[in-house]
Design a protein that fits this description.
By secondary structure, the chain is α+β, with helices and mostly antiparallel strands. The protein has 8 helices and 37 strands. Among the domains are: 177 residues, C8orf32 fold (Roll); 223 residues, Jelly Rolls (Sandwich), CATH 2.60.120.1130. An 8-stranded mixed beta sheet has the order 6-5-9-3-2-11-14-13, with helices on one face. The chain has an 8-stranded mixed beta sheet with strand order 26-27-25-24-31-35-34-33, with helices on one face.
Amino acid sequence: MRISLHITLMLIMGMIHFSSAKEIDDKIAHQNYRWDDTTSVTISPYDSLYDVVFVKDYTVKEWHESSTFKGEYLSFRTLFLFTTIHKRIKLNNDQGVNDYNKMYLPVLSNEEIFEIHARAINPDGTIINFNESSIKEIDDLEGYGPYKIFAFEGVQVGSELEYYYTVKSVENDKYGSLDVQREVPILDYGFQLIFPKAYTFDCKSYNGLDSLRADSISETSHGLRLNGVFVEAFESEFFSLGDALKQRIEYKVATDELEGMEVYTWQKAADWYARTIYNSPDKAHVKLEKKAIRNLLKDVGPLEGLNDIEKIVKIENYIKTEIELDKYSKVFYANDVLAKKVYSKTSSVRLFAHVLNQLGIEHELVLTSNRYKKEFDGDLESYTFLNHLFLYLPVEKVYLSPSSELHRVGTVPYGLTNQNGLVVKTIMVGSYVSAFPDVKFISSGDYATNTDNLDIKVELGSELNEVITQITRSTKGHCATGIRPYLPYVSEKQRENLLKEFFLEIALDSEVENITTKNEEMGGSQKDKPFIVSATVKLNSLIEKAGEKHLFHLGDLIGPQSELYQEKERKFNISNIYNRQYIREIELKIPKGYEVLNAQDFVVNDTLMVDSQVVAQFTCNYEVNGGSLYFVINEYYDRIEIDKKHYPTYRKVINSAADFNKKVLILTKE
């Protein structure tokens, strides 16, 4: 079941106070919000193009003081968040009806729902109102926990579903992000923030969405508003930033006049993370952690004579081999982590930071977002951008990701790079830490750091009816993370299958034998060396006879390649996942008595120049020497972000590899 496709009312935090008729008992500004009386279905030019069209998508977020919650009176007044959601959805075909004729309400905790209204409007104008008796309760919906479900009966193609509801919740964090754009169009989008006059909010729209405007609400409240906006359907493009390009809104409390201060700043975030990573609750904990780390370093083995990077390589490999990562783990302090052999993403950073401190290795904290979800914005000091935490070693100029089992010092997940981040320098004074934040660029490295190379030697049988190759594949950097990190943890049979997959993509009938590896280990002296897999591979399907000629599908030796087609005009800039290089060297022994007719057809020189620099290239050249034909292919990409105006040339470079993949070498008798 694709729950994400359905209308989902996210009612978080435990047992829900649920009533379809219960009215809001607080005097909030949008207390009397209602749907309009329109009972005719909407006709739009998008009906034939999409399964559904959002006729209306409206959200109100209002912070308001209240002294009641879930029918109980509180002894104090506190600030609650009231969120009203209103959607109206046109169902244009059977798929749309199937995806949207049910509503799923998670039963979690600490929220109170009011004023839930739902109806279906059929094409003939008849209205089907929500029937509360149709609610079904499920203890565990496919592992997602308890849900309340109700269906719209009698819905048909051309109907519109409409619902709105209000949720009252306790929200400690007065900031957030609201995704606006969908894969279908929104005819009428609106968003409103309402808050007491003691607060000011910062709000920012992204990717072409209109900015919110100031809105005077009442004597005690004010806000920001965006109304009546058409939002086009989002269409992702290959080699782009994907969901990060969707229109969205970021908001946060800027100032609190009652406290006389800015509420969310990079400095406050840096202080909190620095305390979390470095401070201990008391002197006893300090001693326990230091002792545990000294014992860890003994277990790692001798570090004398090693430079700082070599020490880190050895320690990192030991820790990531011995300790399990569990993102839900509550184990936090280094002594407990090392005793229980488990850590969370945050406690993994704490452990590594304390190890580095004990070794006297300078390092800094780095906080950022995944640029494929949203790029870090240093100008809006909102904590929604602080999703990922790792380390930077300024002397060695390398990054270290303690929570990534696939990466080792020098590389971090590529989605965290090629953008800004919050870099926090810390200074320890006794057992306390001071933090100094700065927004800096997180470099991704050049193409030479991520390589996937092939060395292929080919012999054709004397009758030209078989192809026997010796293939060596060499990978490093991000290109090596697809298989190398997993090998220590799989069975011998699984290991064999994983290694075979390195070669089976060339041809379905591949027979892979005599597999050997080099530099398989993730640590020690192997760290900076490429991971190498070699094998003997029979590829008989790559040769065929056509009359007096023999056709050798030499292009298939480099494996399947990406191919770009785009009928529409390019909308977004090009974004590579990381810089990279592919060098393929192919040696073909020409059988005696035969000659090659078309080696010149394999010569390619496609290059993209930007600012007088080569940023993407696919070249192939050949030479004949000593009865063998040698091809050398050099393909690389050395800029991650490229303006969309260069897309035609970039596409040509990408497609050069795919075109080479299709080329056939012709041999005939002399």
